[in-house]
Amino acid sequence: MKKNILIIPGDGIGQEVTEWGKQVLEVIASKFGHEFAFDNAIMGHTAIEATGNPLPDETLAKAKASDAILFGAIGHAKYDNDPSAKVRPEQGLLKIRKELGLYANLRPILLFDELLDASSLKPEILRGTDILFFRELTGDVYFGEKLRNADNTFASDLMNYHRYEVERIARKAFEAAQTRGKRLCSVDKANVLETSRLWREVVQGLAAEYPDVETEHMFIDNAAMQLVKNPKKFDVVLTANLFGDILTDEASQIAGSMGMLASASIGDGTGFFEPIHGSAHDIAGQDKANPLASILSAALMLDIAFGLQEEAKAVTDAVDQALKAGWRTSDIAVNDTPTDRILGTVAMGQKVI
Amino acid sequence: MKKNILIIPGDGIGQEVTEWGKQVLEVIASKFGHEFAFDNAIMGHTAIEATGNPLPDETLAKAKASDAILFGAIGHAKYDNDPSAKVRPEQGLLKIRKELGLYANLRPILLFDELLDASSLKPEILRGTDILFFRELTGDVYFGEKLRNADNTFASDLMNYHRYEVERIARKAFEAAQTRGKRLCSVDKANVLETSRLWREVVQGLAAEYPDVETEHMFIDNAAMQLVKNPKKFDVVLTANLFGDILTDEASQIAGSMGMLASASIGDGTGFFEPIHGSAHDIAGQDKANPLASILSAALMLDIAFGLQEEAKAVTDAVDQALKAGWRTSDIAVNDTPTDRILGTVAMGQKVI
Ligand SMILES: CC(C)[C@H](C(=O)O)[C@@H](O)C(=O)O
Ligand SMILES: CC(C)[C@H](C(=O)O)[C@@H](O)C(=O)O
Q: Which SUPFAM superfamilies does the entry link to (chains A, B) (predicted)?
């Protein structure tokens, strides 16, 4: 198989971890006889520094022309603490999601047995958890009109959804549920929000077309609670953009660390694969970041973008073996992890390779 | 002290649990020589059934005239599953919050040592946790304009904040932080939302006036994660309405159960005290609900509305003693709780009395 893959390391630890997702793809290509051609592009803070634009035209053109994209992370504290900054790294990420039509963000909560102890949740609460989030990614309050009045005393963001936006992601979630545990939980705040009432109507309407899937509706506040109380009760979770952002970060604690979670953004064209963690500038450049989320993002690319299930499994198995052998990065180490088993980014990447 | 207290049991288990908050107030009155006069009013589904209106004028008039309100819970599945319902129980709650100017919702995450095991989080993660949430309660996407287009293909809700709305709750949070751990964490999504950027600007501006308080800003997705990972790191948490709704429900798992958490809503006039749990119609009328959140809401009333700290402490001590004696309602029981220690609503209420 011949594929063009675009690597966008982005900001902070994105630079370090994406290197390992890429190297894993190279090993897979040579082992399984594929031809993966790689190109590089910039985005986020890195791109602002170089060009003034968080998503340069060249990056967008390369992205559209590629078969799949491996992305690192975005963001920089400099902008976070300056609410009046007009140009921000995150604009690059939001724009590329919109431009590539990446309306469905899949976030599997994959639990490696070896990491049961790394979580703040009790092992008996965690064991057996297997959740697949479908987060809507190109609508909601993220993309609605933003206003600030002239005398700076008022600000607003429009939360909004079109019926077709809810329908297309809901269908993907129902279809996924059919191939898994056959349960779908749609999360909203229909007791308060009109947007959520439209959301619920659409999902209720579609449920009839998927009679083999057990459909449930849950308020976001309750879902945030149930996810900690009893994560096993969830199979496929369907959410709007903002609620999905919150719930999936919360759910990262189920997997022991944010450093373990990969995501796939898909939609109209080229798929986009990235860890759910951020740029973590506090540890950037120090060989401390966990490369496993980037490596698992590469596995998702093989599986979802290229349909290479066997190759994807080879990657997750390699991660599993590294963990079974006792290797840990510091984010997934526990009190009694022997210090000689705690690795930096490079060493952990090499173990998986 | 002479006070007029309005009791609004509301819907579902609200009816059962509020009775015990009230009885505890009666006992306190007779023990400490106060005169508490009680009146009753209806709200929510109960009020819709009786009058067609989730917040009848009579209830609102009584509320405004009272010195404090003890509320139960609101909501009914009937409306949740009918996204097109025009009249809904929750409208009553939102309207009374607005009409009474209850802009600050205080939600203390109080951890009883005896319940460390009832949580899904590991005891060593929990021990020492003491968080006070300040959730803004009369603004945000809850109260912004709601639209549905004529052909039902589009819906929106306006998320919005005025500077003064952020300032008045932020001041309350800073002041509370000064009397506690002197740390304030303000939660927003300033990397995406204009409303959050205004929020952050205001909080940054005020921070200079409270130099003894260490102020931190955190994105909501990160906060939802940190709350599970390391709840001890929080002291006072300041949030907008929607984010606070989500985070405080999530945080209920720290206290072992939603059935343990009380809240105080304060602002321009009469204070409003209520459990953070919902109407739980699935267990309503079965003597299963935990009355402790209502009883602890009564304690918050004594403390915050009437300044009766000693009386408030007598109530929380009584709850503590009931727990120390091993008494549990089913929501806070664990696997090895002896069945003869598991009580219903009435029996648990009596133990505290
Ligand atoms: C960086 C930020 C804009 C982004 C989001 O909120 O979508 C991130 O948190 C994520 O979840 O991918
Ligand atoms: C019932 C609902 C409208 C309410 C809210 O979202 O504010 C509830 O969840 C709460 O937290 O008090």
A: Isocitrate/Isopropylmalate dehydrogenase-like (SSF53659)
Q: Does B342 touch chain A (CB under 8 A)?
A: no
Here the tokens at position A114 are 């070896």
Tell me, in angstroms, the distance from the centre of ligand 2 to residue B276's CA.
8
Task: Give pLDDT tens digits for B100-127.
Answer: 999 999 999 989 999 999 999 999 999 9
Asked if residues A186 and A199 have their Cβ atoms less than 8 Å apart, the reply is yes
- Final residue in a domain of this structure, among B254, B285, B305: B254
Report yes or no: B35 at the A interface, CB cutoff 8 Å.
Answer: no
Whether B86 contacts chain A with CB within 8 A: no
Please, which pLDDT band fits residue B142 given cuts at 50, 70 and 90?
Answer: very high
Domain of residue A35 covers: 1-102+257-353
Shortest-distance Cα residue to atom 7 of ligand 2: B245
Pairing of the two strands A104-109 and A262-266: antiparallel
Mean of pLDDT values over A84-113: 95
d(C-alpha A69, C-alpha A25), whole Å: 12
pTM summary value: 0.96
pLDDT at A134 over 90: yes
Q: A130 C-alpha vs ligand 1 centroid, how far in Å?
A: 22
* B99 within ligand 2 shell (Cβ under 6 A): no
Is the beta carbon of A90 within 6 A of some atom in ligand 1? yes
Determine the average pLDDT of the residues in B168-178. Answer: 98
Residue of B nearest to A197 (CA): B83
Grade residue B93 by pLDDT with cuts at 50, 70 and 90. very high
Q: Do B224 and A163 touch (CB under 8 A)?
A: no
Catalytic residue (one of B82, B113, B221, B282): B221
In a domain, B110, yes or no: no
Specify the number of domains making up chain A: 2
In terms of domains, do A38 and A74 share one? yes
Say which CATH number the domain at B350 has: 3.40.718.10
Same domain, A98 and A142: no
Q: Please check whether residues B47 and B159 belong to one and the same domain.
A: no
Contact A273, A301 (CB under 8 A): yes
Q: Are residues B262 and B289 in the same domain?
A: yes
**Residue of A187, A189, A191 best suited for mutating to test ligand 2, as the one with most atoms within 8 Å of CB:** A191
- Alpha-carbon dihedral B257, B327, B12, B137, rounded to 10 degrees: -40
Please name the residue of chain A whose CA is at the shortest distance from the CA of residue B225: A250
Give the C-alpha separation, A63 to A41, whole Å.
8
- Nearest CA to A300 out of A108, A169, A168 is that of A108
Cα–Cα–Cα angle for A137, A238, B93, rounded to 5 degrees: 100
- My answer on whether A249 and A281 are in the same domain is no
The reply to whether A286 and A332 lie within a common domain is: yes
Same domain, B340 and B307: yes
Residue closest by Cα to atom 3 of ligand 1: A90
Together in a domain, B291 and B338? yes
Which band of pLDDT confidence, cut at 50, 70 and 90, is reported for residue B84? confident
**Could you tell me if residue A303 is inside a domain?**
yes
Instruction: Indicate the residue of A154, A219, A253 with minimum beta-carbon distance to B228.
Output: A253
User: Is residue A81's pLDDT more than 90?
Assistant: no
* Structural domain contains residue B115: no
pLDDT at A105: 98
Contact across the interface for B191 and A125, Cβ inside 8 Å = no
Q: Which of B227, B254, B281 is the last residue of a domain?
A: B254
* Residue A107 domain-assigned (yes or no): no
Contacts of A151 (CB under 8 A, 6+ apart): none
